[in-house]
Amino acid sequence: MSGLWQVLLLSLLPGLGNFIGGLAAEFGPNSPRALNRALHAASGIVIAIVAVELMPEAVAVLDGWWIAAGFAAGAMAYILIDRFVESLQEKDEGTTSSRMWMIYVAVAVDLASDGLMLGSGAALSWGLALTLALGQVLADLPEGYAVIANFRAKGVPRARRIWLSASFILFSVGAALLSYLLLRDAPETVKMLALTFVAGLLTVAAVEEMLGEAHEAEEDSKVSVIAFAGGFVLFTLVSAGIEAVIGAG
Q: 136-165 burial, b for 16+ CB within 10 Å, e for fewer?
């Protein structure tokens, strides 16, 4: 199987995870408490992706100031994207349609960052890309749940909710293919800088977006903390299991 087809298949996973999480909110019971815990678990998974997979790869190759610069650039990119979404809200706020599209833009950007991460990882190794893809599936399940729950609360019709949820797959696939094509023949230093950039973007998104939305949905409890830690532990075990299988292969 060619590299592009492998990237294509792996990049489908985050979007599918988001879609399946949306279906769970669409056809199953949902509550602010469940949303709070799901988003805490997703945040733990994202932090684990950064700490266990992305940063160790970069630390082994880059000098500290390059790592700091790449991480800061990713964090700044998130801030700029967030400001852009907020500016759109200020120009056209108050209607159900405008609020729905603001949510859509935010999630589309998040799925595109997933694709960027997978494409960057695939340019380094397929084992890393597979681990990142599975980790993002775990994180995107509760995010998809949150998106559909939000759409339902704003009165978006069911058919439109499902089509919007399915369309997120396009963003993860497009960003993954683009980043892979740009980075596959790039120097190793450039590839590692791309990983630190994604690490900065994901870290800020987990802390500001996921945890912020979790706190808005429901007040935190001890179970929320357990969910956060459980998400971190779960991804770490998945990562270790994949590395063991690949090493034995």
A: bbbbbbbbbbbbbbbbeeeebeeeebbebb
Q: Model's pTM, two decimal places?
A: 0.81
Q: pLDDT digits over 107-133, tens only?
A: 787 788 888 888 888 888 888 888 888
Burial of residue 203 (CB within 10 Å: 0-12, 13-18, 19+) is buried
Rounded CA separation 31/243 (Å): 36
pLDDT at 92 > cutoff 80: no
C-alpha distances in Å from residue 124, one per residue of 3, 11, 66, 163, 187: 12, 15, 18, 33, 10
Percent of the chain residues past pLDDT 90, beyond the cut: 12
Please choose, from the candidates 177, 188, 174, the residue with its C-alpha nearest in 3D space to the C-alpha of residue 129. 177
